[in-house]
Design goal:
The protein is of the alpha+beta class. Helix content is 15%, strand content 25%. The strands form 5 sheets. A 6-stranded antiparallel β-sheet has the order 8-9-10-13-20-14. A 4-stranded antiparallel β-sheet has the order 3-2-5-6. Strands 18-17-15-19 form a 4-stranded mixed β-sheet, with helices on one face. The radius of gyration is 24 Å and the shape is elongated.
Length: 368
């Protein structure tokens, strides 16, 4: 028989309530305060994590079998909410009822990001009250499969319209905050002092529309100034971020499946809109808690329009230059085919439409 060396032990203590200890592979070893067993003759790189705190690392060396390394005190620094953001108390995770396969796994990643990174699930801007939801880092297949493209062509759309939806792998390496809703008329007026929308009768909580891409950039600059943060902290979503956020783990044409029969529960589009926009948030959200990603108004993205890069791409930003900007999501005016998660629209940045608005992203680069 072969003798197995007796494991050593250690206890990790922390100032943070509910802290847990993980090994170098990310496997959970136990809660702080418990006696942990570790293999001898090696150094162990351990990570201590707790909600609303920055993770911290500690090295424990077990030089011989049966060694009790005692208690190691690890102080976790509390994650501070930036001055431009206020955490939304008692924010809830979205219901997954009726959503497509993959939504649960995606929401589990959102939950882990909240727990492990110490970032709030939902925040709002301090002065303007714009709501954001935390979107975890991750990989997904961007674009549509041939079967989905065939379905759209069969419904009467020219194949050239969907040929630019080539599937490819995308990895977003950093979490980010995505607007829970489209920017509203009231929020635009608060920042810019006017309301360019055609559908003013839809109310201050209806999405702002009739804005060109450059006017969105002006809004973003003024918003950063109002909230006291560096220019670029608030911005438009990249096209990859938009589709990733829209899908929330789903791989189907819509976040609830491939058939458009249930779209009316999630979107305002030509069949149910009454030829107008509607206040944001009235339809069901996706698995990450985002509303109106399908329908209501198209949403400007940051990218120039162009063909997708081939192969696996990290954090794509689109072409360096171009003629048209990307917009996504479909609108109150358009039929279901244009509300698909993979559908792409190209619009000259100086054009304005009463079916076109935008949604915000907030970087977490200085807020890890």
């Amino acid at each position: 028989f072969r003798l197995v060396p007796e494991e050593g032990t250690v206890r990790i203590a922390s100032n943070a309530a509910g802290a847990e200890v993980f090994d170098a592979s990310g496997a959970r070893l136990g809660a702080t305060g418990a006696t942990l067993s570790l293999s001898p003759f090696m150094a162990h790189e351990l990570t201590v994590k707790a909600a609303r705190h920055k993770p911290a690392e500690v090295t424990v060396r077990i030089d011989r079998p049966g060694l009790d390394a005692g208690t190691r005190q690890v102080v976790l620094e509390q994650q501070r909410t930036p001055p431009d953001l206020v955490e939304v108390a008692n924010a809830q995770y979205a219901s997954l009822d009726g959503l497509a396969t993959g939504s649960r796994e995606a929401q589990d990643r959102q939950r882990r990001a909240v727990s492990e990174l110490g970032l709030p699930l939902e925040v709002k801007t301090a002065r303007t009250g714009i709501l954001f939801r935390l979107i975890p880092a991750g990989s997904f297949t961007m674009g549509s499969p041939r079967a989905e493209q065939d379905m759209v062509v069969k419904a009467g759309v020219d194949r050239k319209v969907v040929e630019d939806e080539t599937q490819h792998q995308v990895t977003l390496t950093k979490p980010f905050y995505c607007g829970k809703y489209e920017v509203t008329q009231g929020q635009w007026e608060m920042v810019c002092g006017s309301n360019p929308s055609y559908f003013k009768n839809a109310g201050r909580d209806a999405p702002v529309e009739n804005v060109i891409w450059e006017e969105c950039q002006t809004f973003l600059q003024k918003l950063c100034q109002m909230e006291g943060v560096a220019e670029g902290t608030y911005r438009l979503l990249t096209e990859a971020q938009w589709e990733y956020a829209c899908r929330a783990g789903s791989t189907s044409a819509y976040r609830f499946g491939d058939s458009d029969s249930g779209l009316g529960e999630y979107a305002w589009y030509d069949r149910n809109s009454g030829a107008t926009t509607h206040p944001v948030g009235q339809k069901r959200p996706n698995g990450w808690g985002l509303h109106d990603m399908h329908g209501n108004v198209w949403e400007w993205c940051q990218d120039w329009y162009g063909e997708y890069a081939s192969g696996s791409v990290p954090d794509p930003l689109g072409p360096a230059s171009g003629v048209d900007r990307v917009s996504r999501g479909g609108s109150w005016f358009h039929d279901a085919r244009f509300c698909r998660s993979a559908d792409r629209s190209r619009i000259p940045p100086g054009d304005r439409y009463i079916s076109l608005g935008f949604r915000l992203a907030r970087t977490t680069a200085s807020y890890p």
